[in-house]
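Below is a complete specimen:
___
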Amino acid sequence: MSTKTLLISSVLFCFLFSVAASECYANASAQFKQADDYKKNKQYEQAEAIYQQIVTDFPDSNDALEAQKQLTLIYIVTDSQQQADAALQELLVSFSAHKDIAQAVHDIAYQYRLLKKYEKSNQIDQYVVNNWPLSDYAVLGQMDLAKYYVDRSDDPNAKAAFDKLLADFSNSPLIARAVHDVAQHYRGSGKYAKANQLYQYVIDNWPEAEHALWSQADLIKSHLSHGDETTAEGAVNRLLANFIDNPLIARAVWDTAHLYQGLKKYEMANLLYQHVTDNWPDTEHALWAQADLIKSYLALGDDPNAEAAVDKLLANFTDNPLIARTVWDTGQHYRNLKKYEMANQLYQHIVRKWPDSEHALWAQADLIKSYLALADETNAEAAVDKLLTDFNDSPLIARAIHDTAYEYRKLQRYEKADELDQYVINKWPEDEQTMWAKMDMAKSDMALGNEATMQTTIDILIADFNDHPRLPTVLHRIGDTYQEFKKYDHAVAAYRKVIEIVPNSELAADVQGAIGWTYYVRRLYDQAIIEWGKVVQNYPENKWTAHSQYWVAQSYYRKGDYEQALAGYQKVVEKYPDDKKVGACKKRIALLQRRLKTSSSAPAEGQSKAGEGSHGCGPLALVTLGHLLGVDLNATEIAALAETDEQGVTSMYGLACAARAKGLKATGMKLSFEDLSKLDKPVIAFVRGGHFIVIKEINDGGVVVTDKDTGETGMSRDDFQQNWEGYILDVEKQA
């Protein structure tokens, strides 16, 4: 063979090999993307098949390592323990010499830790530490072991794990981060002295490390957490003095100022915000500091200094690429405080100064909301016209118009709301906002009693967007709307359509629970038990599962079937120990155990009727207050929403939840009588004896108590104060 032929053959071989290799990698990349999509949709079997194919097609490659790891993670998430163990063993055997094996194994330990399967995560992290002691992931594994023991207040093992971290990994580039992270967990556990000791250790031993800066900042947080303001100020001074050249100092000081502001220590917050703007004026955090300075002055009621800070924001940061967003955010803050004049000035400034920015569109839309809040119909109408004219080419205009329609609909201006939504439908028929517009027009029909028109609108919506990926979410909202108007059978039909379209999704689990609720509020407890039981059975790993098991128990309790209720509450405690309902379940378990021990002869039917007939004073008080607000509430529904027991006992938390479920704003608070007298609006008060009453007003003659059915009664200030424990529930219509 000639040299020329050999050369051509070699070049051709290299070319073909490179093409084949690139096709393989491209195929693996495409396969990973498809598998990831399946995982996101919880279609684990399809993802599993793809990962197995990658392992087969690309043996001993980086892709095979990643696919084998992903297989293990799938088995962990689906609680397939034997398969997870086998997949991990395959990973360890087949890829023991791979450069990324330590990272892959640590990732698996981390997944177990996320699922709170700590025994497995600790075992695997220990394996990483033992087998790859020179890797970064050995440091992270040892760190996670120390954090685990800290979180459980296992001081001896925490100390041993931390001592090993320092002894074995003191020269690792990750050691400062690791010690800082352990300190964070001590602080999170309320062990401030130990946390502070470790923060200081990082500062003293690795002063140039990024986590020395964060340790100094976290020292401040730690001191403030237990009220030591003097020591905190000293730590602030050291932050400013010792880390002045750190590239992250502006962010750290801004973050510290934000902490002080959150604690309502506005003077110190303002000093730090000012320090950021003075010393690092060209940084992103100088812009945020100037904006937060405005909010801080407003919180102090210092409008003149707030306006001066606004002027400085507009003058000094006009060329910052984030300025339009920041000014818009400031306008939002003024509007939320009902300082509409200043909000409108800022919105108009954005529209004039940066007309092509996204936030000019939102500023114009929010200008409409502001005028509507002021009941300034003329300017609102003019602002709507400007929105339609000047921003017609914005890619977000359909959403902005629909949002505006939503504002009109909240004010029961259905004709204007429907006009704007119809504009969206006509102009952008394929846009997702058209789907939402049709749904909200159906809400208008329902509110106006046009049920037939509403059903027609919904049928058209489903037909037009039958293949749209967001249709299940829209159907969910439609079901909620039917529930709101007590059209429960229609709600169930909408929810079941969601399950039909996306049967294995989290949304399906959510609406399955909502179906249970439609029966519960109608006191059809047997059907509610069946529907919530489907969540437990069909979606065992879903976030709604524990919630549904709780409501199964509640339904049995409402029926008067206390033995089944007891078993249901115990399941919640045993199977979902970290769920927020566990505390309530334990109380109910103790109550039922006492009841079943002392009396098991009362017939369930009689118990059920007794429970159903007792609304209790809490729900009745909320109904009365709703009447004063112009909101029609039903005591039976409120009792169900508030989880009032069969003796009529309701918690303030339950009453607040019921109010929020009906679209009201509810805030529980403790006040002095003097502060209560200044509220100048009706509230629900909690008084001795576990009673709720509605205070209509407090005047020179005393306290006026009102009831929707029996009218008003008076009591002296002294009598009221002797019985009132300081707690009220402030209930308002949403703005």
